[in-house]
Amino acid sequence: MSKPPVLKAPPLSLDDDADDLVSSLKRKPAETRQLPPEAREALRHQAETSPLITTKSHRRPAEPAPPPPKVVRDGYCMPVEDHSALENLARFALRQEAPIGKSGILRLGVRLLATLPEEDLARLIRELPPVPTGKRKR
């Protein structure tokens, strides 16, 4: 596959008037570019009041992002029925287009339990059947 030919434009020839125009458009030294004080003040006022013009000095400093919460990794033993209930809740959340993992469901449960009156929470704790703890045999 060959490349298409590159067309080159012939060099432009500038007459004397064009040379004068180009030289007048070139940057001039700083001392010849100074604006009168009234014009500088008007531009400064416009920059301060215009919503479209922002300069670094007028920007609000960005607020630092909050640090991520510290997490603790832990393991738990639970009956098969409770574990399948966790999976069912995760599937329900997925159907509701709000996916959540098992740890998120446990966190929600802890928050809900924390809102219960002490008598109800104590009764639920007493009614919960104990589960053997320890590491599984390998």
Provide the descriptors you would attach to this structure in a database record.
138 residues, elongated, mainly alpha, single chain
Mean pLDDT, to the nearest integer, reads 78
Range of helix content: 40-55%
Low-confidence stretches: none
Order of helices and strands: HHHHH
Number of DSSP-assigned strands: 0
What is the alpha-carbon Rg in Å?
36 Å
> What fraction of the residues are assigned to beta strands by DSSP?
under 5%
Number of helices: 5
Main structural class: mainly alpha
Mind summarizing the main beta sheet? none
- In whole angstroms, how far apart are the ends? 64 Å
Approximate shape: elongated
Describe the structure.
With 138 residues, this protein is an all-alpha fold. It has a domain at 80-127. Helix content is 45%, strand content 0%. The chain has helices at 16-25, 37-49, 80-95, 102-114, 118-127. The longest helix is centred in the middle third of the chain and has 16 residues, at 80-95. The protein starts with 15 loop residues before the first helix and ends in an 11-residue tail after the last helix.
Task: Please write out the topology.
Layout: H1 16-25, H2 37-49, H3 80-95, H4 102-114, H5 118-127
